[in-house]
Amino acid sequence: MTIPFNIAFQHMPTPAFVARIESGEIVAANEHLENLYLNVGAARQATWAELVNDDKACLRDTISLVKEGRIEKVTAQLQVGDRIIAGEISFSILDDAYTLGYISHTEHLDFSAAENTLLKFALTESSAGLWMWEIESDTISCSQSIASLLGCTLEATPHNANAWHDLIHRDDAEKLIRTVQEHIDHQQKYYEAEYRIRRANDEYIWVRERGRTYSQSKDGKVLKLIGFVEDISHQKALEEHLRSQATFDELTGLLNRGAALTHFTKQLGLARRQYTPLTMAKIDLDARGLLADMPLENRNTAIHTTARYIYKKIREADILARVAHDKLLLLLPNTSLKDAQKLINEFLMPREEEKKVLEFSDSSHLNLCVGLATFPEDGETIEELANSANSAVERGRTEGISVSIAK
């Protein structure tokens, strides 16, 4: 060893050694390693196999796994006098012939310190919590931040895999278990999963779990995982809102134009294949121009109330969408023109209590006009039917009638 290296080696804060890769002979030990044995009146082991208390252990094979990137450190049962100490051994390969090994004692993990070290690997979110899972003993250790995430005391956090899985939403548990098991089986370095977990108040929150292999055996078997979970409920809520915006009209909660076209096209295809009737209704919510002069907030309230009133009147199979500011489009599958007229008349003649609800929101059934078009007489495509229904409703507005049929 060179003089600078020897000085650094002796002053390393953890027990360390230099060994021949091919034979496993330990050719040098720093003061910390020597003292580990001197303190118990025992002689230091001379080889890698003796150090890790395994006659079959081959340092050359372990270093090969390190070079391949399959392991970063190994867990070993170190024989120190009469004691067996669990330790993590990490390696820095010096050259083709020698490797540096340094030992950390890991029987106890101090999470209060770990959360401020590289063990958390980018654990920067305030809502995240650190955990460690010792696989063979099935022991999970959680940080205080996980207890806060789950809304419980540190003692009440899950201490084994089954207890953790019991907190996971049943629709997400199988996928998480499969992801982690594949990580272990294939000796991977990292994995990531998103799932819902139950807090102490029985409320489910969305979390993202990121885990990595923390230690492995001499043959690469994964022994410990370490990772963190972070609360992503707000992110999930935003994603759901964006999906909803892509499908539903924000003001009325009805389908928007794009989503309606998909549903309309599917129903038209069924009507064509099954030779069943189909009627489209274009509904003008402001046939008499009563909404135009209202303040925006009042106008939106009237549109929302009228749209929800109509929605409650239609059948489960019918499809209602908002396609313009004050225009709705209603598709009535398996419905003849005669039956469609009956259905339309039901919401054009509300009961007294329904009238009061509409009037309270500055809307009125008298402000509605409906244009009807049927397949295939008035059109063989969605666009043709919509144009026919639109022409009918415009004619109805002009003539001052509530229901107008395409010609």
UniProtKB/TrEMBL annotation:
Lineage, uppermost ranks: Bacteria, Pseudomonadati, Pseudomonadota, Gammaproteobacteria, Oceanospirillales
SUPFAM superfamilies named in the record: Nucleotide cyclase, PYP-like sensor domain (PAS domain)
Domain GGDEF span(s) in chain numbering: 276-407
Protein name (database record): GGDEF domain-containing protein
Organism of this sequence: Marinomonas piezotolerans
UniProt domain PAC: residue ranges: 191-244
NCBIfam families: GGDEF, sensory_box
Residues spanning the signal sequence: none
PANTHER family in the record: BIOFILM ARCHITECTURE MAINTENANCE PROTEIN MBAA, DIGUANYLATE CYCLASE DGCP
